[in-house]
Known about the structure:
The protein is of the alpha/beta class. It has 13 helices and 13 strands. The chain starts with a helix and ends with a helix. The model has no long low-confidence stretch (mean pLDDT 94). The protein binds adenosine-5'-diphosphate (ADP) and magnesium ion (MG). Belongs to the cation transport ATPase (P-type) (TC 3.A.3) family. Type IB subfamily. This is P-type ATPase A domain-containing protein.
Amino acid sequence: ATPTAVMVATGKGASQGVLIKGGSALEKAHKVKAIVFDKTGTLTVGKPSVVHSMLFSSSSLQEVCDLAAAAEANSEHPISKAVVEYAKKLNSKYDSINDRVMDAKDFKVHPGAGVSAIVCGKTVLVGNKRLMLASNVLISREVEKYVTETENVARTCVLVALDGEISGALAVSDPLKPEAGRVVSFLASMGITSIMITGDNQATATAIAQEVGINTVFAETDPVGKAEKIKDLQGKGLTVAMVGDGINDSLALAAADVGMAIGAGTDVAIEAADIVLMKSNLEDVVTAIDLSLKTLSRIR
Ligand code: ADP
Ligand code: MG
């Protein structure tokens, strides 16, 4: 495209809340054949909440949640916030300034797995099965059954272990963005395949993908793995776009032919992307491709 055409399209995009950084992304966007969407915060609203809970010990739900929340209080992860909110709802004694009723020591983040800390002399682990197995915590058949049931209905199961034993589980739900399904089917009508990528487990990811109409899912994928998946698709000769919001998406956003960041996402993702969707609305993925199509057809 001519510099003028790029300037016009960039201006038009900006007025619609689609920030295009440079002409190269604009020149490639109309050739995109596959779009890889991150799950949490991109296809979903990114504000998960605890919608169900189960006890697996004689501890009270309040006690399990207070200890879990104390461990999660130091983390910025959306699941952490959901656990803290839930504990607060159960317990009126919450200190509104510190967001906790107990202090945690030795707090650790286990990326893609959960958190751990010592609270009131107890070792508290909060996270997925992988975290529990890595710490030699036994998963009983009863717990296994709850995890499976939770994941099959598109929820993430957060396990809470106290001193090495599963004491409770929380089912966390993060609703799809209302426009997600519409955008995926519109892209399909344009001949563009939508793919989901996530650090979350296979069962939950597959259930959510089904709701939104996505057939290809890459689950339990870490940041490096996300970028590798993009390169695999490019290796098949496809022009690939990536849409993401998190720090864990930034390598994939940079690797893609067209990286699109959700405006409400982290600064790292926004910096790594070629295009920023300022309204955080997935319909603007189509807006960006349309702008590219129009810019390039005008000069032909
Ligand atoms: P995503 O790619 O969906 O943003 P992450 O890579 O951040 O997911 O996390 C993957 C999985 O690890 C989550 O679905 C959850 O099971 C577990 N997990 C990560 N962080 C936490 C946390 N702070 N508390 C509990 N579970 C967590
Ligand atoms: Mg995300």
